[in-house]
Amino acid sequence: MNHPERRTSGPRRDLLAAGLAALLVTAAVVVGRAVEGSDGSLHVNWPPLYAVWDPHVGPGTPAALAVAAAVVAHGPALAARLPWRALLAASWAASTAWIWSLALVDGWHRGVAVRLTTKYEYLQVVDRFADIPATLRDYTQYILLGEPGAYHWPVLLDRIGLGGGGWAGAFVITAGSTAVIAVLITLKALGDEASARRAAPFLVLAPAAVWMGTSADGYFAAVAAWLTALLALAATRTVRRPAVAACAAGLLYGLLCYLSYGLTLFAVIAAGVLVLARTVRPLPYFVAGALVVPAVFTAFGFDWWEAYHLLVERYYQGAGGVRPYWYWIWANPACTVLIAGLATVAGVRRAAGASPGAVRRWRAGASTATDRVAGLALAALLAVAVADASGMSKAETERIWLPFAVLLLTATALLPERGRRLWLTAQAVLALAVNHLLLTGW
Known about the structure:
Blueprint: H1 4-7, H2 11-39, E1 51-53, H3 61-81, H4 84-103, H5 108-113, H6 132-138, H7 140-143, H8 153-159, H9 165-177, H10 179-190, H11 193-204, H12 209-212, H13 217-236, H14 242-259, H15 266-277, H16 283-290, H17 292-299, H18 304-317, H19 325-340, H20 342-363, H21 369-390, H22 397-400, H23 402-408, H24 420-437, E2 438-440
Antiparallel strand pairs: 1-2
Helix pairs in contact: 2-19, 2-20, 3-4, 3-11, 3-24, 4-9, 4-10, 4-11, 9-13, 10-11, 10-13, 13-14, 13-15, 13-23, 14-16, 15-21, 20-21, 21-23
């Protein structure tokens, strides 16, 4: 008799899941273009993405093709045999090269230097923040006017003499690319080293790289990934000082809540890490660390709750109040397919299929590494689902959900050895197609 869990792990079901995801994206494009052409209520030019149709090549094209070909051809083998620290370094280098090459498909000026200087980005208002303490006290008066805040990284870069879009873009790419290291550490701590090695090439060739190099959310994704890694190390006690790691994870979570209000939902993933590790020992240290950033901002006069309520009001004053919920509730997941890729869809399907048995083993205290990897991916999926249902993420989720997508990619560790290069190819082709056929707004 076939084991019920084995019946959920077949390649045919992976292909079916990927096919359904592709249909979802197609429907989001077709329906979205019809709606936008009819009444313009979506406020995006190429739904479901904030982008315009603009087939092009650029100086980054040869490098992007070379990186993709090299990772597909040699990535799995190198990931399997490199020493652990060398794997971390190689993955970071390859991820950085992938993000840079995709950004430079649009050229240095259009692809990097001016991406973070548009009217919707932080750099437009850096000059307004000469007195940072006074700015924090008066910050809420700007929210309803629709002016973006700039109380974190752009101001700090400007203060040390690294002002302008070029430096900001370089910072985002450099910081964002470190997320691959953090996710590998998380997989090793919570799952096992073999899981991390299987996922490494997919983390490098993630389609999310299209937006990691052109949006501040790439930096946010790195912060989120590192807090997850530190918490996983603390929860599994695979670090010399678990309490320090837990406190550092909390510190990053507190920072994350001030980088983007929507990223408070990372509490779902943090809770998932503790549940999967079957421990609450890091929690007091995590909470203590998480209170540091709010305490500092509050001491300087910034009221997080008041700003949040004003932000919600501002959201509905603008495009958020016009964009139809009925479309974005299912088009946002289509965006997630585009940033995470079809390989991730197949991996998530495997995680969901394995979940009944994983729950039984967790209750019995006999969870496997595969169970914990699947649980991590499903925790990320749950956070995305909550964000989607909230209605506060209508459109532009290709950048807003980057922190969640990075952890969704952990599901690729569940894919079988056979066919991995085909799935890697699918990831690379998707990223290259999006970057060369569309001019993304972020």
